[in-house]
Each structure stands twice: as structure tokens, then as C-alpha cells.
Design goal:
alpha+beta; globular; binds zinc ion
Length: 195
């Protein structure tokens, strides 16, 4: 009988510890802007419902946050620059004109097994591919390059797991997202937003 009670107490203690760790687990990422205002959430947002053809995937596969044009963008976690690029339209009469990320940079965070992707930067990131970054490092600046909703600048921030990184024949580093399930809702990995 005493053994049974002891067993129950041990179970109870484990339950409390488990609850504490799941409730108060530290967020994996930090906000890439110091004072972010959330402009658009993740997935099938109100904007997506009203503009079903705006995104190729039919979903907003990241979040849009803004602090202001040229606000510094910080690495969401310690990591390394995997690759960066500039995606703009070939010409303005093209139906998918500016259907793009603009100036963007992708970081890989080994300890988390996650990649973070920052789009629409005001100019190409100053960081070289392969550079190690910490959360205190500026990796770029908020801008409005590429195809954006409205006129204002913002940062489109995405988080991926299970990506493949490869080198093209002409020597560029590219990445591929393996499945829709590999694209995570960044809100779940960040501290609660205050605005
Ligand atoms: Zn976006």
C-alpha cells in the first residue's frame, strides 16, 4: 500500500514537472525586429481569403512584421548564412511581375534543426554565404523589395524544417523545402508579440 502511495506521489511530481516544462518552455526563436508590429499572420489569413490568387500556394507561408523602413533585422537564433538572393520580376508587364521575395537571406540553425528566411530586405544583405551569426547581429534591413502587399515596407519571416541545400551547376547555393509540413508557423516559436 505504501509503495502504491509512493508511486502515486512520484507520478504526481512528474506530472507537475512535465506541465511546468511544457507551459514555460522558452521560445526557440527571438523576434527578428526589436519592435515588431504584426501585419499578417500565417496560413489562410483574411488577406488570403480576399485575394485567393495573390500567393501561388494559396496560403501565406510566413508572417509579415514591420518596425519601419530600414529597421535592422536580427538573426532569430544563432546560426549560419546558407544562401541569399534577389528575386524580382523580369519586366512589369509579366503576369507574375515582382512575384517575389525581393532581397532575401536564409539562415540555418543547427542546434534547432530549423532554417529562418527573411524577405523583402531594403538591399542585399552585407553578410557573405557561410558567415556565422548570433542573435545580436544585424543580417539586413527592413524594406519593400520584391512583391509586397500594399506600399509599406515589411519583413516576411518564414521558418522551415527538413530543407535540402544543394549547389547548382553554376555554383549557386539553393535550398528546397521538402513538404508543406516543413513550413512552420513562426508565431508558435516566438515569444508573445506585444503589439
Ligand atoms: Zn508575407
Amino acid at each position: 500500500m505504501a509503495l502504491m502511495s509512493l508511486f502515486k506521489i512520484v507520478l504526481f511530481v512528474f506530472f507537475i514537472l512535465f506541465s511546468l516544462t511544457t507551459t514555460f518552455a522558452a521560445p526557440l526563436l527571438q523576434w527578428p525586429l526589436k519592435n515588431p508590429v504584426l501585419l499578417q499572420g500565417f496560413g489562410i489569413t483574411e488577406f488570403v481569403k480576399q485575394n485567393p490568387n495573390f500567393y501561388e500556394s494559396g496560403e501565406h507561408l510566413g508572417i509579415d512584421v514591420s518596425e519601419g523602413f530600414e529597421a535592422p533585422i536580427y538573426a532569430a537564433a544563432d546560426g549560419v548564412v546558407v544562401t541569399k538572393g534577389k528575386e524580382v520580376c523580369p519586366n512589369f508587364s509579366h503576369p507574375r511581375c515582382n512575384y517575389g521575395k525581393g532581397n532575401w537571406i536564409l539562415l540555418w540553425h543547427d542546434t534547432l534543426g530549423l532554417a529562418t528566411h527573411y524577405q523583402h530586405l531594403s538591399r542585399p544583405s552585407h553578410l557573405p554565404i557561410g558567415a556565422r551569426v548570433r542573435t545580436t547581429d544585424t543580417i539586413g534591413f527592413e524594406g519593400a523589395s520584391g512583391r509586397i502587399v500594399g506600399d509599406g515596407s515589411h519583413l516576411h519571416f518564414s521558418v522551415y524544417k527538413d530543407i535540402t541545400i544543394y549547389t547548382t551547376l553554376d555554383g549557386n547555393t539553393e535550398f528546397q523545402i521538402m513538404a508543406r509540413e516543413s513550413i512552420l508557423n513562426p508565431i508558435h516559436l516566438l515569444p508573445p508579440i506585444t503589439k
